[in-house]
Amino acid sequence: MGKFRHFITEEIDESKLKHLEHVEDHVLHGGHKGFAHAFHTVRDVHHNLQGHKTETQTTIKYDGSPAVVFGTHPENGKFFVASKSAFNKNPKINHTHEDIQKNHGHAPGLVQKLSAALDHAHKIKPQGIYQADIMHAGDVKKKGNRVEFTPNTITYHTPHDSDHGKAAMKSKLGLAVHTQYEGKTIDSLEAKHAPDMSHFVKHPDVHMMSPHHDTSKHHYTQEDRAKVEHHLEQATAHFRNTPKEHHDTVYQHHEALKTYINHTVRTGEQHSHEGFVAHHTAKHNKKIDSVKTDAAKARHTTTRDNVLNHINTNKEHFEGPMHMHKHLQAAKDILTKTMSQRSEWGHEIAGAPTKPEGFVAIRQGRPSKFVDRKDFSAANFNKG
């Protein structure tokens, strides 16, 4: 597979993506070159776990909520906090508690956590603008000999006398910083993932949870290495046999395909072309049933028939990319399982032990999720 490294190129602009993608999903929305990025990212993590250095860096993905953007506003020099709405067309920037109430008063939970960030995040002296997951904000609990908090789906716990346990109990805010932003205006900010945070000042009111992850400390078995090599070879074989126009067809339906694949995560079924057609048909039929006029029903019916005709007429176009997706996901799951062996934290969902949420692999400045969709994503979709 060494020679294949030079065969696949990955010059692609995905700068407009607004959220973190599963690494295997790059095949769907990135097409021919998206596969290249996914392949090299998975392959690099595979090599990193064997002690080889690559250009891909892996960080911990925490299950925090909400995301908070904070730091010095580049245009007025004032400290601010914001949710992801900092990047809206009309940004919601909060310099005061009054700003938070005005912008987010409809969501009391968000108001409480942004208020904690406004009161305390400046104490670590951020030099610039950063994004973090809020891990706790006044809701840390001591149960027996452990400390715990549940920011989202996962409950994190650690011994009460550990460094993290002591820090969490003393603090008023828990942050997992993962991204820095650079730019002279809010509108022009560009993300820099896994930034250097050595300049942050330690403060007892802010409990920092590092995203940095050392892949060299894991036991990566020969059996698992062979399985990953097999899946990468299979993905490569399907890539070689798939014309570029097949990727172009899949791209036209990539959002619907990702919605369908998330549906299969919920149900546990294996995704297929037939399953995609059935799911997409049901979605269109629901839309048809939701409108009242004959004209609207006829319009949506025509849309459904045209879309499904394109999907069915080009059935063979979906086969290669879906096989690539399946094998890259299988390889990623093995790597994610290996990286989940060691953690500073215990993890539970609804009282049952579980793995960490996952990891983020950053290659050429572009991050990709390494999350076990059968485990964590299913629990996240189905919680409640």
Structure description:
- With 384 residues, this protein is an alpha+beta fold.
- It is 43% helix and 18% strand.
- It contains 11 helices and 15 strands.
- The chain has helices at 26-48, 97-104, 108-120, 163-170, 222-240, 244-251, 254-267, 273-290, 294-313, 315-339, 373-382, and strands at 21-22, 57-61, 67-72, 79-82, 129-136, 141-143, 146-149, 155-159, 173-182, 190-193, 206-208, 346-349, 352-353, 358-363, 366-370.
- The strands form 3 sheets. Strands 3, 4, 5, 9, 10 and 11 form a 6-stranded mixed β-sheet that branches. Strands 6-7-8-12-13 form a 5-stranded antiparallel β-sheet, with helices on one face.
- A hairpin with a 5-residue loop joins β7 (146-149) and β8.
- It is globular and about 60 Å long.
- Mean pLDDT is 92; it is low at 1-17.
Number of strands: 15
Radius of gyration, CA atoms, in whole angstroms: 23 Å
Number of helices: 11
| Beta-strand content bin | 15-25%
Characterize the quaternary organization of these chains.
single chain
Write down the overall mean pLDDT.
92
The secondary-structure class comes to: alpha+beta
Give the biggest beta sheet: 6 strands, mixed
Question: In angstroms, what separates the terminal alpha carbons?
Answer: 44 Å
